[in-house]
Amino acid sequence: MSSDGNGGYQPSEVEAKWQGRWDERGTNRFTSDALQTAENRYYQLMMFPYPSAEGLHVGNIFAFTGADVHGRFQRLTGKRVFEPIGFDAFGIHSENFALKQGIHPMDLIPSNVANFTRQLRQIGGMFDWNHTVDTTDPDYYRWTQWIFIQLFNAGLAVRKEAPVNWCPSCMTVMANEQVIAGRCERCDTPVEQRRIAQWFFRITEYAQKLLDNLERIDWSEKTKKAQKNWIGRSEGAILHFPIQDRDGSQIEVFTTRPDTVFGATYMVLSPEHPMVDEVTGEDQAEAVAAYRKQATAKDLVARQKVEKIKTGVPTGGYCVNPATGEPIPIWVADYVLMEYGTGAIMAVPGHDQRDFDFAQAMGLPIVRVVAGEGDGADTPLTEAYVGDGVMVNSEQFDGVAVAEAKPAIGAWLAETGRGETTVNYRLHDWCISRQRYWGPPIPIIHCEACGPVAVPEADLPVVLPRVEDFKPDDSGVSPLARVEEWYRIDCPQCGAAARRETDVSDTFLDSSWYFLRYPSTDHHDVPFDRELVRSWLPVDCYIGGNEHAVLHLLYARFITMALHDLGHIDFDEPFIRFRAHGTIIREGAKMSKSKGNVIVPDGIIEKYGADTFRTYLMFLGPYEEGGDYQDEGIQGPHGFLHRLYDTVTTAVDLENHEGSRNPAVADPDVERKLHQTIRQLTRQIPELGYNTSIAAMMEYLNVVRAGGRTAQRSEVEPLVVMIAPFAPHMAEELWEHLGHTDSIFDGANWPAFDEAKTRETSVKLAVQVNGKLRATVEGPTGMDQDAAEAAARSDENVARYLDGATLKRVIYVPNRLLNFVVEQT
RNA sequence: GCGAAAGUGGCGGAAUUGGUAGACGCGCAGGAUUUAGGAUCCUGUGGCUUCGAGCCGUGGGGGUUCGAGUCCCCCCUUUCGCACCA
Fold it and tell me: Does the predicted interface ipTM exceed a cut of 0.90?
């Protein structure tokens, strides 16, 4: 249905025409040679999509369009822009959907990819379809496996048994980053803890570097902050508490407050702590066993409830406070987590609220070791005191300020081997095993004699076999373990019978290196061509959602650092610049299938065209914040593009009819506005200020058309270039109409502005009396204060307010305002 | 609970960073053209108003300043991170 009443702009025709031309001419594609020889390179990357069965949603289109606008703008300024796209198609999401539909993912994914490709072409992205990736293609995951092997050989991939997060609904383990408030990020099921041997990447080795490098990359502050918090560096000390009556046995605790050690009146072990049995006395054995059983049965949500009343049992064992030499009881309680620090704490109830609550509940002693302002050594505590003060009840350290006591007590304990200062991170090693089917098999062969052996690189890929029964189960073992003919294999080292690793790797591994692959998809013998990587990477501008702030973005940085240290690439940060786009809501509410308020892009593109849709999405709010999609709102950009089309075609027609008989006379108002508009867009588009850029173009077009005037070529040709990043098809069409034969993205230059021509010749000056607006007067730009005052005083209304008052002061801001400060007499 | 960001017309959102609040657009109202229109084109549109460039107005309350949406303090609300992290 065309809403066009004047026979002009027909989006569907224009868009089909130009998508066809781009394809035929290879406008957006790089040949293998071009990738190698291009100058002035710019790598514009957007987070690649997961190709769902539903097709692209508005959020995808919003995200991709914003990135595409940026890429197209860069191209118009003379860069050779590489803007690839691909598909992140492995993972539990696809697998679950396949299970639900009863379609094998190997059949499902290709049709999803085909549909996404169709839609991505339809929205007019400047994608290089010669260089796409599909993470489920053996030609791609072969190299995902290769990366695993590089890390394995470097000791950065280790198999260890540790408490891991188990989602009972997805029936697989998951990384810490994938657990949100104790629940599975995918299905919201409360996550359990299990002890299963898993493959981990030792990302913690890079904790400090991941933190330090944040200082020098151009990323949204929000995202950097999220990473910083996730890494969670904290400085403190490991203190050794000898177990009473057990020679040489000791328990280590991590604390950020070694200064309060004199106040440690008991110790708490996490229920999972390996030394629980050792310290538990006979009398308590049964109670401790019961408590541990109950604690491990609880899921993480239940266990991590802060408000819940603290529980725990005494072990009957004692250890010695290394500062006081006094014995203190050892308890087991689930408020201490095995995953953080050493899984054991020294409890200082006087100065830690959690310990305080526990001590009160259990009747344990509370000792004050820090006195705040006005407190004495024995001032009773009604809650934990965490403020500043001086040490008390701490023997030789009494009277020392907390700030000095921290290093002093730390040093004192270190001297005598009772502890050492240390840095602890909240970040954990990255668990990459998944007991599922739809992922790249981890390229390891388990041999009784040799242990885990990497699959020889020449044997890659380890192809995921097509199996019909790929449903996961609760056993903690991957479905691939059912495929005997696949997992039976000889050890590549000793030739003995061995078996393949049957776990597959985390989807986040697939996406942690795809940006390295894009320029090298023509190369089948290497994961990435060294020269291409050197010349195209790191990525110049990366755009994606902030929901990946601590998942994908952290992993991609880690893999980049590891590959750098292993000598495969020469940079250690993958993305020079990262910006997160916002999210789109609809008429004040989140879009969701259950509410039935999801926008179906296909229908909108059919009705209004991709250019209008793109322009509207970029117009409805600041790109980095997102905005509210109001169904009626699209009328604005729709009308704007129609008017623009008419204005340009009319100008060209007129030129053709009248030719040089009617030489163009520059209209100073239009020319000034044009240069102001160019200036604004030139500054704002690189900063992703799209909504205001579009508003500026609308303003300009309004000036061009004011009073029904007809435009001249020189007034609209630059506007056609400026609209091109937003409405590329229409810009091409108008560019052709203006007499050009090649693509606007090859033939046009981003217009330049002349600062002199942006200057207003006259200004409206606000005239205030005591800060209240009383008049505006017009005068030449840059008039001096005397002239301004004279003009202002001659205004009737101003004069009325100045009459009979004493002038105290005059504030003059040239070209802006004049403020008379008066006092009534 | 901690951390961050944000609260501006009927709505989405602007505001050169301390200088005429409400750009641009939607919606609405009036008009033109039209067989018709959910098309196109003008005009108007924060509230109150004694219609005066008068008063009020950027979540609420205080403050700094000639002047505050913008800076400072307190409070409220919303959104998003993190959440027994020792």
Answer: yes
